[in-house]
Amino acid sequence: MMRSRFEPDRQLTARMVATMFLLGLVYVAFIAALIVLLESLVLVVVIAAALLGAQYWYSDRIALYAMHGRLVTPEEQPQLHGVVDRLCAAADMPKPQVAVSDMDLPNAFATGRNADHAVVCVTTGLMRRLDTEELEGVLAHELSHVAHRDVAVITIASFLGVIAGLIVRFAFYSQLFGGRNQRDQNTAAVFLAVMGVSALVYAISFLLIRALSRYRELAADRAAAMLTAKPSVLASALTKVSGDIARIPTRDLRTAQAFNAFFFTPALGPGTAMAHMFSTHPSLERRLEALAELSAQLGEPGGEPGGEAGGV
Description:
By secondary structure, the protein is an alpha+beta fold. The chain has one domain. Helix content is 62%, strand content 7%. It has ten helices and four strands. Strands 1-2-4-3 form a four-stranded mixed β-sheet, sandwiched between helices. A hairpin with a 2-residue loop joins strand 3 and strand 4 (117-123). Helix 7 (187-228) packs parallel to helix 10 (284-298). The chain is globular and about 70 Å long. The two termini are 40 Å apart.
């Protein structure tokens, strides 16, 4: 794939490489420890590898299915396709497939293993609430994820945590249903060791992935604002979407919370300052502050970013 015109972010690239390297070390140690602790681990590793491959190759279809999204043609959604066409031409990148999710939740996400196999999806709730310029800012944000290749990285990194859970379940049931002699005095010790190792691996993976996810959102905001040269418009969209999400019943938001890492803004944000440390996104205030700084750097007229949406 040719390099797009989205502003490269070397810090994002370095963080992605470092995260995958550290996760790789953690999981090599994890598997090595479990080989010592468990018997018949080969089957579990094979299953986990197969699931990871499926997640990588079919992540776009899985995400669309889960979010009730459907691919749309230019005839069905001419405005949406027109915005994507303009942005892809400006960024000099392949046009992804375009999808719409019939949800009132105002949001958008991008998924896919690379720019040639990517999907950008918006909800009907988002299109109903934003004007064309704001929609352009959100879509530029999502396309930057594809251009920076962080969609594939976060997909793989997030899925690695599933391996720990899968092996824990395997260990539990193998001990429960006679994988070892029930009278073996080492059974309880082995089980506790597996649980301890798996819990540690999950905790390390969780923190690494969350840190990468928060940074990649700031990087996408910056890249989108630089491409469109309108940081205040992106801030307006961000403020408007975040405000409207806050009015949606919590029970409806919880159904989409599993996709927070891929959304433009989280469906259900953290409620406390401590919870922000484990969030997939920076706080709204942090994102608006970064866009305000960029607006000042660009000398953008029109006041502070987000000012237009302040009363929304």
